């Protein structure tokens, strides 16, 4: 699969290395060059410096023809906008969005985005631990 | 009309003030408490809501579902998009208006269903172009679909258009001169109209034909 990842923080970098290891073709976008350097010199995928809400930057990252787009910057609204552009403008078949705000995650899920809320997942996991 | 404005910066503040003066019901949403305190002093507590304009619980509390229009004017395009998407898709607000900073976002916002975009960058650029004697057409308005622009320019002395009838100019099929201002006169031209230097021209054009139109009118 060709996978474009937006945001090279802890989650983005981990996902990128993991997918590359699994043999996928990975492109990572971040507005900071230093963030991308954290992937290490042996990272087999591609990197692009730029703003992920800019359609031109997404195009440079090869979003046209990508099988999946994953938006995991630290900013919920950036992730939502990039995901909408990937889905509606470029027609990427699988688009996944990380949203820290559980409520926003729920609403945009209702509105058709595939969202993952780490906050909601952690709350669920911690509640389970207490119940056990 | 009930108008909800998101973002209490300079644009949001002055916009609220003038819409209130016109007698509309206005609610300005600002998330920074310190800025909100200033806005409450200036506009009155009834017209300011302190909270996150991208948060749907804020929207429910301010009665978003009965708003006639939502106007998002924060400094971040992505925040303005999310506000308008929530208003449109979740609360069925009939009209959503977003400020954009990156002019390239106009088309994206339109395709995502936002009704109107206002590009501050383009407005400033147009004002500057008009103030400077640049040899270019001034972009007045981007029409919603297909990238068609309403442009303005002045016929330059010695340009191909100077002293020739519109019909003879070979203006591309996807460009049209719609208005001519000559001194005190303003008229809608026909193919027989002979243009003269210093005529001010309003035209609609696709981006592809703009260079040809520019060359014919301005000679550059």
CATH superfamily of chain A: NAD(P)-binding Rossmann-like Domain
Helix/strand order of chain B: EHEHEHEHEHEHEEEEEH
Tally of individual domains of chain A:
1
Largest interface: A-B, 20 and 20 residues
Helix % of chain B is 25-40%
- Count every helix of chain A, treating DSSP H or I runs of 4 or more residues as helices: 6
Structural class of chain B: alpha/beta
Overview of the structural elements:
The complex is a heterodimer of chains A (132) and B (220). By secondary structure, chain A is α/β, with parallel strands linked by helices. Chain A has one domain: NAD(P)-binding Rossmann-like Domain (Rossmann fold). Helices cover 45% and strands 20% of the residues of chain A. Chain A contains six helices and six strands, in the order βαβαβαβαβαβα. A six-stranded parallel β-sheet of chain A has the order 3-2-1-4-5-6, with helices on both faces. In chain A, strand 4 (68-71), helix 4 (76-89) and strand 5 (94-98) form a beta-alpha-beta unit. Chain A starts with a strand and ends with a helix. The model of chain A has no long low-confidence stretch (mean pLDDT 94). By secondary structure, chain B is α/β, with parallel strands linked by helices. Chain B has two domains: 2-118, Rossmann fold (3-Layer(aba) Sandwich), CATH 3.40.50; 133-218, Alpha-Beta Plaits. Helices cover 32% and strands 25% of the residues of chain B. Chain B has helices at residues 10-21, 33-43, 56-61, 77-90, 105-111, 120-131, 210-218, and strands spanning 2-6, 25-30, 48-50, 69-72, 95-100, 116-119, 138-142, 149-154, 175-182, 185-187, 200-205. A six-stranded parallel β-sheet of chain B has the order 3-2-1-4-5-6, with helices on both faces. In chain B, strand 9 (175-182) and strand 10 form a beta hairpin. Chain B is elongated, with a radius of gyration of 22 Å. Chain B starts with a strand and ends with a helix. The A-B interface holds A 53-56, 75-78, 80-81, 84-85, 88-89, 101, 103-104, 107, 110-111 and B 54-57, 76-79, 81-82, 85-86, 89-90, 102, 104-105, 108, 111-112.
């Amino acid at each position: 699969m060709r996978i474009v990842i937006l945001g090279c923080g802890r989650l983005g970098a981990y996902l990128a290395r993991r997918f590359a290891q699994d043999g996928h073709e990975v492109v990572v976008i971040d507005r900071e060059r230093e963030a991308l350097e954290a992937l290490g010199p042996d990272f087999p995928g591609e990197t692009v410096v730029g703003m992920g809400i800019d359609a031109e930057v997404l195009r440079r990252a090869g979003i046209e023809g990508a099988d999946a787009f994953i938006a995991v910057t630290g900013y919920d609204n950036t992730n939502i906008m990039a995901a909408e552009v990937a889905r509606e403008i470029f027609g990427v078949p699988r688009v996944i969005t990380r949203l820290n705000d559980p409520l926003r995650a729920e609403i945009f899920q209702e509105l058709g985005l595939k969202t993952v809320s780490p906050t909601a997942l952690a709350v669920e996991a911690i509640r389970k631990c207490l119940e056990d | 009309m009930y108008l909800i404005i998101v973002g209490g910066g300079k644009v949001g503040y002055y916009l609220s003030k003038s819409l209130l003066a016109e007698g509309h019901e206005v609610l300005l949403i600002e998330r920074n408490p310190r800025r909100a305190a200033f806005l409450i002093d200036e506009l009155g507590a009834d017209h300011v809501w302190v909270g996150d304009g991208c948060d749907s619980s804020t929207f429910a509390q301010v009665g978003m579902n009965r708003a006639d229009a939502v106007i998002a004017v924060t400094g971040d395009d992505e925040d303005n998009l999310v506000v308008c998407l929530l208003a449109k898709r979740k609360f069925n607000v009939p009209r959503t208006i977003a400020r954009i900073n990156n002019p390239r976002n106009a088309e994206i916002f339109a395709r995502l269903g936002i009704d109107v975009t206002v590009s501050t960058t383009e407005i400033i650029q147009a004002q500057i172009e008009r103030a400077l004697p640049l040899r270019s057409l001034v972009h007045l308005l981007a029409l919603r679909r297909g990238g068609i622009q309403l442009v303005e320019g002045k016929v330059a002395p010695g340009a191909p258009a100077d002293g020739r009838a519109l019909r003879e100019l070979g203006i591309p099929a996807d460009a049209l001169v719609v208005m001519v201002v000559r001194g005190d006169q303003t008229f809608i031209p026909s193919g027989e109209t002979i243009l003269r230097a210093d005529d001010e021209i309003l035209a609609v054009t696709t981006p592809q034909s703009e260079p040809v139109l520019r060359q014919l009118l301005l000679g550059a």
